[in-house]
Amino acid sequence: xxxxxxxxxxxxxxxxxxxxxxxxxxxxxxxxxxxxxxxxxxxxxxxxxxxxxxxxxxxxxxxxxxxxxxxxxxxxxxxxxxxxxxxxxxxxxxxxxxxxxxxxxxxxxxx
Amino acid sequence: xxxxxxxxxxxxxxxxxxxxxxxxxxxxxxxxxxxxxxxxxxxxxxxxxxxxxxxxxxxxxxxxxxxxxxxxxxxxxxxxxxxxxxxxxxxxxxxxxxxxxxxxxxxxxxxxxxxx
Lengths: 111, 116
Hints:
The complex is a heterodimer.
Chain A: E1 3-6, E2 10-14, E3 19-26, E4 32-38, E5 45-51, E6 56-59, E7 62-67, E8 72-77, E9 86-93, E10 100-101, E11 105-110
Parallel strand pairs in A: 2-11
Antiparallel strand pairs in A: 1-3, 3-8, 4-5, 4-9, 6-7, 7-8, 9-10, 9-11
Chain B: E1 4-7, E2 10-13, E3 19-25, E4 31-37, E5 44-51, E6 54-57, E7 64-66, E8 76-78, E9 87-94, E10 106-107, E11 111-115
Parallel strand pairs in B: 2-11
Antiparallel strand pairs in B: 1-3, 3-8, 4-5, 4-9, 5-6, 7-8, 9-10, 9-11
């Protein structure tokens, strides 16, 4: 069955550094990959979508890569700020299929 | 502003009781979804609907029921058959069916259900 892993349950980094979160998957060949931000007690908020034929996508301080050979996506936040502290979820989908979500990584940016 | 409204924010259920969680969207999205979130686990799909008067079971549909009588509304009933209903429930919608195109899924703020 499909399995999605996100590098660690929690990640602490210093303000100003680049945060790198990992999403690995097995038994799946997704056509799309999404990243969401979730704050405590709230619903996830969509950040970025990347397609299988795209290697990289950027949005402001965010960068996402998608390596279908390694079956991995990396999510980078540059110049991180305490306000970036949240849980980040990856979600994988295929044509005509619903997205499947990973367990998330809780990021804490320390001032 | 367009969005998804879930109510109530907190809900307490007694043993053997059915409860209904409300989800309303004004985004004119065709597809709607119900997810359950437990600590340390990804969102698990309960039910989804791509069109009015039609819905399909997700991965963990047992003990739940839904209806889709209007495009804007997708209520979820947690029945007494659901043995472990305590969780955070999230409703979502998208405008391109199950593919969830470029704008992704829009989620509500969730309902936290607790069995007492």
